Amino acid sequence: MSERPETLQQPETKAVHHMRFTGSAGEYFGIWIVNILLSILTLGVYSAWAKVRNQQYFYGHTRLDGQGFEYLATPVQILIGRLIAVALIVLWTILNTALPVLALAFLMIFSLATPWLAVRNLRFDAMVSRYRNVRFNFVGSYGDAYLNMLVKPMAVYFGLSVVMVLAIVLGVALGPVVGVVIGVLLAAALAVVGYAFIASSVASYVLNNYRYGSKVFSATIEYRQYLKIGAIGAGIFFGLLLVIGLLGASGLGAVYAVFKDAEAHTKPDAAAGLAVIGFYLAFFAAGIFTSTVVRVLVRNYLFSRVKIDGELQLGSHFTVGGYLGLVVTNLLLVIFTLGLASAVAKVRYARYLAEGTSVAGDLALVAVQDHDQQVDVAVADEVASAFDVQIGAF
Q: Which of 34, 221, 226, 256 is the S-S candidate for 204 at Cβ 3.0 to 4.6 Å?
């Protein structure tokens, strides 16, 4: 008798759950305009309630496997943190005007406190976020935060300073042109290496210290991948600058002719001014395009590395063209409507963010126990926002 061939087992495929955003621009516009009017009428006091309403709307309409997220912070928590942030801004403004030396000392102290603020901010934002009655958490230590957010960046800045000194020495020995060229090349190379070193360290620290209830986030972040992304970003940016420079150089003759012929006109020709404006717009566009490419590459890479307790796999599906189109159209919407389309822009961004995010795995089989830690007031969250401290891995 012939033996029956063995049935080949197909590899197990995990169900992929794509996030959805169910909010609408028209619905959110009503919330947004009322928040602005009440914040103005109450001299900013209502802004804490406005922030909670905004967050609750976007969290609630961001849905995964049919269920929305929850934002648990209270307006009083936000208000206390915001009042402290405003007090610090007023203090710095007074010191900067009357006592510049003390203002400098204030900034130094604030810089030293930035890692502490980062941990408190990440912890607060995580603990006021809930999905399926289970809260998130951040358990990173202050020591690791200072290592990754202060010590390592200072080492990179020191390296850049050494390169600048080396460029000056080479400029004296070999001539200013050679010194500048070598200095720029060395600085660009060290900037890419430094970016990869710092960004990969911060991303690894942040992602590996998130928790979803009792479930642990884990991510193996590779330095060389960040190095690759940094090199791509630098290549694109300097390549675009080269193109802009060549186009600008080709137009120098026309600009020179305009200035030379200016005496023949009763009014100065606007061509020179337009040329300068065009250069700055091109430079701005190069920056937007480069930052878009880097953000998309970083986000897609990081999400592909994140697992939750080894059971769930995060995914990001951003495209450069899609994200760039979103950024540009949102910017134009806000500019040409004098800010009135800000609500529309926020909803469009939230929808793209949700639709570009997925979770692979069986969510129904994941048993999660909530943690019992309590959240404090939003001091670090509001102070970080007030002083534009950018925190996070993505």
A: 221
